[in-house]
């Protein structure tokens, strides 16, 4: 009976050790960098957006390959000029394909960039808009076929 209990104890320790190993090996860090600082300013940023009447018009869809992406930024229905706009693409399963693209103002309030999407799958998209008054972003997941 003692041998059985020792064997059961050894199997339990092995299973626990294996679980800890795979948990440590698969750890990808926090989903959002500096999440506490960003979360604490979320409601303040949303209040500023509402008071400015900020509207960000995102692209409808993206496809595999190169995409000409345009983002329109409006303040109270008028184009927002000279803002710093960035477009981020990140594959959900592979961090090595994450890319940040600086957008250029093509016409008043319309920012554009060439955004490559190398393969199909689920991608995280993020548009960041920064001016002297506000710094905000929009995130969404895109299913690329």
Q: Could you describe the largest sheet, including whether it forms a barrel?
A: 5 strands, antiparallel
Distance between the termini: 59 Å
The poorly predicted ranges are none
The proportion of strand residues reads 35-45%
Class per helix and strand makeup: alpha+beta
Summarize the topology:
Layout: H1 2-25, H2 35-40, H3 42-52, E1 54-57, E2 65-75, E3 78-79, E4 84-91, E5 99-102, E6 104-107, E7 110-117, E8 121-130, E9 135-144
Antiparallel strand pairs: 1-2, 2-3, 2-7, 4-5, 4-8, 6-7, 8-9
Report on the architecture of this protein.
The structure is a single chain. The chain is an alpha+beta fold. The protein is 28% helix and 42% strand. The chain has helices at residues 2-25, 35-40, 42-52, and strands at residues 54-57, 65-75, 78-79, 84-91, 99-102, 104-107, 110-117, 121-130, 135-144. Strands 1, 2, 3, 6 and 7 form a five-stranded antiparallel beta sheet that branches. 11% of the residues are buried.
Key structural traits:
five-stranded antiparallel β-sheet
Précis, in short:
The protein has three helices and nine strands, in the order αααβββββββββ. It is α+β, with helices and mostly antiparallel strands. The chain starts with a helix and ends with a strand.
